[in-house]
Design goal:
The protein has a single domain, classed as TIM Barrel (Alpha-Beta Barrel), CATH 3.20.20. The protein is of the alpha/beta class. The mean pLDDT is 96. This is Uroporphyrinogen decarboxylase (URO-D) domain-containing protein. It comes from Candidatus Faecousia excrementigallinarum.
Length: 416
């Protein structure tokens, strides 16, 4: 292990040195002002490859030098952070730490977890995320499974022994050069509900339910929402929350920094934190049905957070007004590649962050420079001086590394 620890410590030392550069202190300040809605600046930019997509190409398996399976995970995280530092001149903030999601069991539906064997009390096999499509099964065509769901109290059960083992191993490996943090998995705090329900019911059947089984749908969503709220309350009461006002993925993209001082972990409350929900599964559903079947239930949990983020890849063109109505704490709104740039700017204004997501296909599947410049021009015309704008290049499943760097250059040229 001595040689493998040496590899980790070399990378950790590089990370600590890089994180101390003045550019990151300035980036941190800019995110604080941006997220606090106190200063309109040039748009903030973050290049955010998918963990199981673009990053596997940028930091391939063959680039790793350790052989211990757990140290390889730590090595990968360190190399990703250093790659970002060396190649992307965006507004990301490097910190002298490496963050991991806690091992454990979320008893709702954990998207992308192929090893899951039950969700909401229903025996089922989870589905992993890959480059291939998969079929959504209807587990709620059985009345017994509906009963199981309605009686299930959702929870997150941390694997405390595994966490202790990893913390001890990683702390020894980095030897105090950087910090190692284990935090609640993203899915535990998300209040979307729909992505979990669609994996229990199937998307096509869920669309029929809006017309054919509205009472059942209300019953299920009401239980899921209230159970998630009870979980949030337990996490807060048991001091299991963590401060996500840092360089952490916030909502469907964006860093979480705020002007507020960092709190001791034992005193973090939901009112300090960013929360998130989206309605991608309802992209083609009318505003009236979003109002009836989604927002009231999502708001039960999301309004407990200090700042709410809403939306991901769905267009929200005719739904902004009701989002502001249901979520008075809204702070970040996603403007997806399928959103109207101008309508979004008019509706969001200075009331929340304009979180624009360019279509990654323009950048990653043949670099369409002319089209990218035209799109950036539209964003500038619509938002300059009017919006707290950020550019989040995400959903990068595959990529040409040079194209990502060239995109940063175009954004700086067109947006400042």
């Amino acid at each position: 292990m001595k040689e493998q620890f040496a590899i980790i410590r070399e990378l950790a030392a590089q990370l600590a040195e890089a994180a101390a550069q003045p550019r990151y202190a300035e980036n941190r300040r800019r995110w604080q002002a941006h997220n606090g809605l106190v200063e309109i600046q040039r748009p903030l930019l973050w290049i955010c490859p998918d963990e199981d997509g673009g990053w596997l190409e940028l930091v391939p398996e063959e680039s790793l030098r350790t052989t211990h399976k757990d140290l390889r995970i730590l090595e990968r995280q360190l190399r990703k952070l250093l790659y970002h530092h060396q190649h992307f001149a965006d507004d990301f903030v490097l910190e002298p730490l490496v963050r991991f999601e806690m091992p454990g069991e979320y008893t709702g539906y954990a998207y992308g977890n192929a090893s899951q064997t039950s969700a909401w009390g229903i025996p089922m096999q989870g589905q992993g995320v890959s480059k291939n499509a998969y079929h959504l099964n209807n587990h709620l065509d059985d009345p017994e499974n509906i009963r199981r769901l309605l009686e299930h109290e959702v929870d997150f059960i941390p694997d405390t022994q595994r966490i202790r083992e990893l913390q001890a191993l990683y702390d020894e490996a980095v030897d105090g050069l950087v910090r190692i943090d284990f935090v609640l998995p993203y899915v535990v705090l998300v209040q979307s509900l729909l992505i979990e329900l669609v994996h229990l019911r199937g998307l096509e059947q869920l669309m029929y339910d809006l017309y054919d089984e509205p009472e059942l749908l209300h019953q299920i969503l009401s239980h899921m929402a209230q159970s998630k709220v009870r979980l949030l309350d337990r996490l807060e009461q048991e001091n299991r929350l963590f401060d996500n006002r840092t360089n952490i993925y916030t909502g469907s993209g964006g860093l979480g920094y705020l002007p507020d001082p960092v709190k001791d972990p034992a005193h973090i409350r939901l009112s300090d934190l960013w929360g998130f929900a989206d309605s991608q599964e309802f992209s083609q559903v009318s505003p009236a049905m979003l109002r009836e079947f989604a927002l009231p239930y999502q708001a039960m949990g999301l309004t407990k957070f200090g700042m709410a983020c809403y939306g991901c890849c769905e267009p929200l063109d005719d739904k902004y007004e009701m989002i502001f109505e249901f979520l008075p704490n809204i702070r970040r709104l996603s403007v997806s590649p399928w959103s109207n740039i101008e309508i979004a700017a008019e509706n969001i204004g200075k009331k929340a962050i304009y979180s624009w997501k360019p279509n990654p296909a323009l950048i990653c599947s043949g670099f369409e420079e002319g089209e990218i410049r035209k799109l950036l021009g539209r964003v500038k015309d619509a938002t300059a001086g009017r919006c707290f704008t950020e550019v989040i290049l995400k959903d990068i499943r595959t990529c040409n590394p040079q194209a990502l760097e060239d995109f940063v250059t175009l954004v700086r040229q067109e947006l400042g």
